[in-house]
């Protein structure tokens, strides 16, 4: 059963905000204000002030927290593509300033998850056919390069690939769709890492938020069609086996076929 005291970002699109949490907070604050406190020496810091100050969240950490919460709602579909992101409503639901919300949205825009339009404000990015084709063009380039270097990859990177595959396999047999998406993304990141190029891996990490949005859309389609675990991990198993066997040609063949199929599948979903 849903907790009626919880509020998501999506529920404040029209400006509505639950007040029970704020009222409870007011009661705590007023009670604390009336309670007697320990005597302090004039000029001395209040007991615990230094610790409280050192533990207080910075403006950057608060905006990062807000960005993380909005990001997760985008990936989970709570905030669908094209949804408006109103600063005032977001500030109220997250109990932060509009400036903090603005910083969070700018961060998400740098990840290509949010777009800003003149006179219309911010909204969740809507993936287009051009976006999907471009993402998969980049992925093909990166992963084929990883496969090319598979015979020379470090043992650490080979172990990371196997561990990523095992996590993906476990997620495919579970019921956590978000864990499955993240595991899928991590497996392909481990394929890229076989290239042994920190810059290539950094570029992959940079495009990962947008790719995670695309994979989330794809997993939603697979869930509706009733895909089983073996359908989801079949290509990944073949890619993993070929890479561990240092079979460059077979690995590249399956990587390209896997990317081609997923691109066509996603293009059909967004059409």
What's this model, at a glance?
The protein has 271 residues and is mainly alpha-helical. It has helices at residues 20-34, 49-55, 59-76, 87-94, 98-110, 129-148, 155-172, 177-193, 198-224, 229-244, 248-270; strands at residues 84-85, 114-117, 121-124.
Structure, explained:
With 271 residues, the protein is mainly alpha-helical. The chain folds into two domains: 59-126, Arc Repressor Mutant, subunit A (Orthogonal Bundle); 129-270, GntR ligand-binding domain-like (Four Helix Bundle (Hemerythrin (Met), subunit A)). It has helices spanning 20-34, 49-55, 59-76, 87-94, 98-110, 129-148, 155-172, 177-193, 198-224, 229-244, 248-270, and strands at 84-85, 114-117, 121-124. The chain has a three-stranded antiparallel beta sheet with strand order 1-3-2. Mean pLDDT is 84; it is low at 1-8 and 10-54. The protein is 67% helix and 4% strand. Helix 4 crosses helix 5 and helix 9 (198-224) packs across helix 11.
